Amino acid sequence: MTPLKTVGHATHRIDALQRVTGAAKYTSDVHLPGMLYARVLRSPHPHARIRKIDLSKAMALPGVKAILTHENCDVTWSSGDQLNQRRLFNNPVRFAGDPVAAIAAVDRHVAEDATHLIEVDYEVLPFLTDLEEALKPGAVAIHEGGNLSLNNQRQPLPQTYKRGNVADGLKAADHVFEDNFTSAHHNNAQLEMRVSVAEWSGDKLTVHAATQGIANCRTDIAKDLKLNVDNVRVISEYMGGGFGNKNQCQDSDLMAALLAKEAGAPVKLEFTRKEDFVAVHGRWSSRQSYKVGVKNDGTLTAIQFTALTGAGAYRKGSCDLSGTEIYQVAHLETSVSPVYTNTAVAANYRAPAYPQAVFGIESLIDDVAYALKMDPVEFRLKNMTRKFRDQTPYTSIGLEDCIRKGAEKFEWKKRWKPVAGSGPGPVKRGAGMAMGMFGSGLGRSSAVVRLDGNGQYQLHVGVTDVGTAAKTTMGLIAAEELGVPLEKVTVVWGDTDTCPYSVGESGSRTTVQTGMAVIEAVRDLKKQIAEKGAPKGSEVLTAMATTNPPPLQGVSRNSFVAHFAEVEVNVETGHAIVTRFVSAHDSGRVVNPLTAQSQVQGGAIQGIGMALHEELLYDKRSGLPLNAGYYGARIMTHLDAPLVDVVWVETDEPYGPFGAKTLGEPTIIPTVAAVANAIHNAIGRRVKSLPITRDKILGVLA
Amino acid sequence: MKKISRRRFVEGTSAGIVAVAAIPAVEAQQKSPVTAATQSPVPRTTIKLIVNGVDHRIEVEDRWTLVELLRDHLELTGTKIGCDRGECGACTVLVDGMPLYSCSQLAVWMNGRSITTVEGLAKNGKLDPLQEAFIEHDAPQCGYCTSGQLMIAKALLVSYEKKNAHPTRDEVRTAMTGNLCRCSNYNHYVEAVMAAGGTAPSTGGGNAA
After folding, report:
1. In what order do the strands lie in the sheet with A576-586?
2. Is A192 close to B35, i.e. CB distance below 8 A?
3. Is B206–A243 a contact, with Cβ atoms under 8 angstroms apart?
4. ipTM of the predicted structure?
5. Looking at the domain assignment, is residue B201 inside a domain?
């Protein structure tokens, strides 16, 4: 690839100064005159019908200004749930944490106190926490129509995919392997909790939201509150992480807006950390079953995959699983069934359908390779995908280089043990690898670029920057296309009043979708400059472009990734740590190697937490969550984190801005599987359930 | 269900911290907790404290935490709340030079104390070397934990400066392990602190033995 002037060079974030001085204003930092504080009362029961709510004592508390319940507020939260007509306040309540009331008061203490004064009469109902029990005949129905949620065609059937004929493929195999794997519900656990600040001016509503997409947040708020979209403004200047749980609008946005309307004053609603764990959402759990056919020479002949996924109490995400597509195989059947239980809702978390599914298939494939006495790296090079679903050519593919260069950097031959568990104890070392792929989301995006008489460019884009350095990336792309230094471009972001529509920072699509709109707007501006000359004095030239790419026909655009992990496992205590990690990525041309490295290292370290620690546990007898919060979740800390070496495999992608592909989500996809495979290599036994905690390691060794 | 007041909760959870962090004796007058049901006035106490070199005399409600005082009443929102229960470290500030979770300190305990927040790191318009290093090494991703990471790192580097030493990678990781980063940019945070602390990047090796 030809080097470029601006894109491809390590560049500090344009807002780095604000981030290190405390000047960056996040939603929770917004303070408006006369602002009230809100708190939410939540169901203490996993499943119950509300007979009566008595607000009299709470309303009598001095300082309480407004209270919403299902009795005075019947608003559907549609962006949260397309299938269940989920309300802001539901009756019956379907999980411990389902909102029952929201209170606005003069300060946070009075609001908190008021939650204790609301008297709710519950009729406690039978509840379910287990996926398989939820599908048994006679199980209590959490929603009308039963506990099997609808598929993508809105039928009460599993989501399926099929090519070839699995029975034929298994017949052609020399060996058939079968196994089952499970993964846990675990939380996005971003540092910034759910928070919204709402303010009305006449019939105009302004919401300061912690959102991954100001434009979608705005249209969703307008839809749910039945407002003209022009009367809704969404501002998100700085955003403290989400990893998928701040897409679209949130129930807190709607509650804050309704409370502010009712009370006639601005309202700030902040969830607590515990609420953020129990009542927002986490990654869906899974029960996976595989049957894999393989020839003596290691050629895959068939994969059959069936799974249940845990939607929780309401359907908020696809609840799909994607992992088998990384293999070339003529005969493939997959079937995934999302199931309701009376537990926390599951929805998007960084590559929502991938890491748990890749854990399953990559664990089993590892076992196949060992059984055939093949090096797992060689097995994957032999069977890795060459065309999308064995049919459609990729626009660019660097997967083989990811595997080869990653293995070289990792010193795979030196670290991997051909006989698993053969190292000396009690602290045993092992190495594992896994691979993954990801197609970025599509969607409409616009960009506006203007040039003033002083030679300064302004780029208006509807990004919020969830931590990915999206503002800087957009600035770099504009500067490169303009042929000017980045300092000449002022980026304007985070406010629907000043920024055009952007698709939202989900699906790892900002660089590839909004980035293309930036390029097209700049090209238009350059054309205008060529025709009219550069503006002078108070003159301004403005250009706008909107891109809304249809899905590519006849080709598939995907990023590819291979991860390599080395672990140490103490076979006496079950303690496992990751000691070395290599992450090799084909994300096309890397727009900003500095911030991209942050994302890749962070994605891998987050994935190690998913592999080893994280699970939201439920007590089956009470239906209550046991470990909501950071201590219980045991997310990765400074001391848990290994050094992550990053290998870039820069393919020349014809469809992306300056050859870029998608990056944010692939960074976590094969991590969990690589760690699981390394633990197997170290101890010679396989843990088939996430997270791979000490007790499970000791269990398989017993 | 038995109600626990904010004050009793904070005092309860910070008992363990007192032992290890040697918090100076509580100077504010002890008052019995007031529950909402009684609707009696909330006790208030006037305290004097210094924040980022500025003297303040302020009447606080006894149930306010330090982070609440800083953010809601002194307009110093650089200090963040990530959990409000002593788990994440986003609210770390320096109290008489000692790094403490400001969500787990009551405001009334701060009488006579000197507080430094992230807003007080830069001096005379010049960034602290740690802030420079955080920019250079792209330490903040979403940035929400960054203020806390800066303050714990500041306390660490000051203590090493006093003994004229440079922290190793593992010493940095150990000192900062009470400060969570869900973007998990731990590698860059540690590199930035080592650079600001004058440590060669090759010192120590993460988890590698």
Report:
1. A427-438, A559-570, A576-586, A644-648
2. no
3. no
4. 0.97
5. no
Test A21 with B146 for CB contact under 8 angstroms: no
Interface test with A, best of B7, B134, B142 (most A CBs within 10 A): B142
- A373 and A453 share one domain: no
Give the pLDDT of residue B4: 52
Structure tokens at A469: 């350095």
Which range marks the domain in which residue B167 is found?
129-196
Question: Residue A389's domain spans which residues?
Answer: 282-440+554-701
Sequence-ordered strand ranges (E) for chain B: 44-51, 54-61, 92-95, 98-101, 114-116
User: Across residues A660-688, what is the average pLDDT?
Assistant: 97
Nearest chain A CA: its distance from B78 CA (Å): 4
Mean pLDDT throughout A535-561?
93
d(CA A519, CA A478): 6
First to last CA, chain A: 53
Q: What confidence score (pLDDT) does residue A154 get?
A: 84
The tokens for A191 are 């540092």
Is residue A141's pLDDT more than 60?
yes
Taking CA atoms, what residue in A is nearest to B7? A109
Q: Is the Cβ pair A28, B81 closer than 8 Å?
A: yes
Record the tokens describing residue A671, joined without a space: 């991590």
**In CATH, what number is assigned to the domain containing residue B185?**
1.10.150.120
pTM of the model: 0.95
CATH number, residue A519: 3.30.365.10
- 3-class SS of residue A213: coil
Residues B105 and B26 occupy one common structural domain: yes
Nearest Cα of chain B lies from the Cα of A330 at a distance, in angstroms, of 38
CA distance B133 to chain A (A): 10
Band (A464; pLDDT cuts 50, 70, 90)? confident
**Residue that is last in its domain, among A263, A279, A295:** A279
Q: Note whether B164 and B65 are same-domain residues.
A: no
- pLDDT tens digit string along A218-243? 999 999 999 999 999 999 999 999 99
